[in-house]
User: Fold GNAT family N-acetyltransferase from Streptomyces sporangiiformans.
Amino acid sequence: MDHVILRPVTEDDLSVMELFLTDPEEASPFQWFGWGDTGRWRRQWAETGLITDDAGHLMVVHGDAALGFVAWRKIVASRSSYYWNVGITLLRDARGKGVGTQAQRLLVQYLFAHTQVMRIEADTEVDNVAERRALEKVGFTREGILRSVVFRDGQWRDGVRYSILRGD
Assistant:
């Protein structure tokens, strides 16, 4: 899929984002953690537009269609340094078409252009082969396995941490 862009979340986009909280099939097996607070993004959007100094969400868009979103959050490493942890969630019809790779590449470019971080990291489950490939295509380096890092669908699962540095 050509010409994917990222843009700020609009109020109309919130219904797309809420699908990931209300529809296990849209959330994908790697993003469904059970029922939760379906109003959280509306409250945060009303207060901050879902972009703050510590975290943010941008919509992944092709033409007029919202395909999902990317997100980042600040990880404080010391008094004088921090980095970003990023993630992506796509509607099932957008998966497997290169959208995730394009969107994550755009997010990395955006964060390096508009913040002073040296490092961006991403985590995914070991079994999420599509996400691992997408991160590697963007230029992320696999750093290692996080044993039993996430509880999903009744069991603890291993994760994989990736990072990309400003000079990579």
